[in-house]
C-alpha cells in the first residue's frame, strides 16, 4: 500500500470527512495539521504549511490536501467522486 498523507485543519468539516473515510478503509496515514489565520486570509506560515504548499506545487488556500504515494488529490471535492466511481480503489485497494 502506498504512503498516504493528509494535510488538514481542525475546523474543517470536509477534512473530517476525508479522515473518516480513510479510517473506514483501515488505511494507515499520516495527518499534518495546518492552521488558518482569518486576519491574513491564509494558512499560518509554519514548516508544515510550507511543506504542504511545496508538495502541492503552489500556494493553496483550502484543505484537505491528500497525497497517495506521489498522487496529489486536491480536496474532498476531488476525492469524493473518486470514491463514488471506484477510481480510488486502484490507488488504495480495499482491505476485506
Quick summary:
The chain is an alpha+beta fold and 96 residues long. It has three helices and six strands.
Main traits of this protein?
96 residues, alpha+beta, Glutaredoxin, four-stranded mixed sheet, two-stranded antiparallel sheet, 6 strands, 22% strand
What does this structure look like?
There is one protein chain. By secondary structure, the chain is α+β, with helices and mostly antiparallel strands. It has one domain: Glutaredoxin (3-Layer(aba) Sandwich), CATH 3.40.30. The protein has 3 helices and 6 strands, in the order E-H-E-E-E-H-E-E-H. It has helices at 13-24, 47-56, 76-85; strands at residues 4-8, 30-33, 36-37, 42-43, 65-68, 71-74. A 4-stranded mixed beta sheet has the order 2-1-5-6, sandwiched between helices. A two-stranded antiparallel ribbon has the order 3-4. A hairpin with a 2-residue loop joins strand 5 and strand 6 (71-74). The longest helix has 12 residues, at 13-24. It is globular and about 40 Å long. It starts with a strand and ends in an 11-residue tail after the last helix. The model has no long low-confidence stretch (mean pLDDT 93).
Class in CATH?
A: Alpha Beta
Structural class: alpha+beta
Helix proportion:
25-40%
Please tell me the CATH architecture by its name.
3-Layer(aba) Sandwich
| Order of strands across the main sheet | 2-1-5-6
Instruction: Please provide the ordered H/E string of secondary-structure elements.
Output: EHEEEHEEH
Number of helices: 3
> Might you state the CATH topology name?
Glutaredoxin
Large-scale geometry: globular
Beta-strand percentage range: 15-25%
At the fourth level of CATH, the homologous superfamily is Glutaredoxin
**Compute the gyration radius: what is it?**
13 Å
Return residue spans where pLDDT drops below 50 for at least 5 consecutive residues: none
Taking the sheet with the most strands, its summary is: 4 strands, mixed
**How many runs of DSSP E, i.e. beta strands?**
6
First-residue to last-residue Cα separation: 14 Å
> What is the arithmetic mean of pLDDT?
93
Number of domains: 1
Amino acid at each position: 500500500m502506498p504512503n498516504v498523507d493528509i494535510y488538514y485543519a481542525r475546523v474543517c468539516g470536509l477534512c473530517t470527512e476525508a479522515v473518516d473515510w480513510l479510517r473506514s478503509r483501515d488505511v494507515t496515514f499520516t495527518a499534518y495539521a495546518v492552521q488558518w489565520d482569518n486576519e491574513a486570509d491564509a494558512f499560518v506560515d509554519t514548516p508544515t504549511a510550507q511543506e504542504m504548499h511545496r508538495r502541492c506545487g503552489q500556494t493553496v488556500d483550502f484543505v484537505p490536501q491528500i497525497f497517495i504515494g506521489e498522487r496529489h488529490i486536491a480536496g474532498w471535492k476531488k476525492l469524493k467522486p473518486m470514491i463514488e466511481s471506484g477510481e480510488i480503489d486502484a490507488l488504495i485497494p480495499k482491505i476485506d
